[in-house]
Specification:
Keywords: Carbohydrate metabolism, Isomerase. The protein is an alpha/beta fold. The chain is 38% helix and 16% strand. α4 (81-90) runs parallel beside α5 and α7 runs parallel beside α8. The chain binds N-acetylmannosamine-6-phosphate (LRY).
């Protein structure tokens, strides 16, 4: 079975830790990822070469990315070709990168990142924000498109996922569409599959206990103000 087929109709869990989280070290993140696999995750999405290398040993496909900020560029998800190569060397079977059409640091072209993924034996997942960006990514050779960056490139971040974009991409893109970004409920996950999603990625709602705690705390009459 190829990697895309292995995640078809299934859940992928993104295991990433925010800066202040006590889960940032590889050991804790591997425990989180192993729990996700035990719970039924058919794939994992991981940030950083060390985490990706560890996740590969858990026996499910790994979508790897590197978050790296560069002054003057808004692109921080796998900005460069060298990041792609580092991820394929770490064993990522799918490499995810920003494909929003915003200028990359150093002026690197999306097609070069796609080629680097393929040279390393991986599929390329285009993290997009719009249908136009998805179509351009497919033209550049992307193997999968994900709604990952919808809601993060203009205006305030919405509360819920962009299920409508899943539908638009499914109707117009000839590659698997991955629903990702702000999925918090089973109803939202089902809605994404109804709109044609190939797989759904859930991150924060499963793998970020800090955020989960904060959401419950904020529902209390006296939420702590420093959290
Ligand atoms: C926008 C951005 O940087 N997204 C990142 C992409 O890898 C991660 O921070 C998200 O956690 C991931 O996309 C899963 O989404 P959610 O955590 O909402 O389920």
């Amino acid at each position: 079975m190829n990697v895309a087929d292995a995640i078809r109709g299934r859940l992928v869990v993104s295991c990433q830790a925010q800066d202040r989280s006590p889960f940032t070290d590889t050991g804790h993140m591997m425990a989180m990822a192993a729990a996700a696999v035990l719970g039924g995750a058919a794939g994992l999405r991981g940030q950083g070469v060390a985490h990706v290398r560890g996740m590969v040993d858990l026996g499910v496909p790994v979508v790897g990315l590197v978050k790296r900020s560069t002054p003057g560029s808004p692109v921080y998800i796998t900005p460069g070709e060298a990041d792609v190569t580092a991820l394929t060397r770490a064993g990522a079977q799918i490499v995810a990168a920003d494909a929003t059409g915003r200028p990359r640091p150093g002026g690197e072209k999306l097609a070069d990142l796609v080629a680097a993924a393929h040279t390393g034996g991986a599929l390329f997942m285009a993290d997009v924000d719009t249908l136009d960006a998805a179509l351009a990514a497919v033209d550049a050779g992307a193997d999968l498109v994900g709604t990952t960056l919808s809601g993060y490139t203009a205006g305030p971040v919405p509360d819920g996922p962009d299920v409508a974009l899943v539908g638009r991409l499914s109707r117009h893109c000839p590659v698997p569409v991955i629903a990702e970004g702000r999925y918090r409920t089973r109803t939202q996950v089902s809605a994404a599959f109804d709109e044609g999603a190939w797989a759904v990625v859930v991150g924060t709602a499963i793998s970020d206990p800090v955020n989960t705690t904060r959401r419950f705390a904020q529902a209390c009459p006296h939420p702590r103000l420093d959290s």
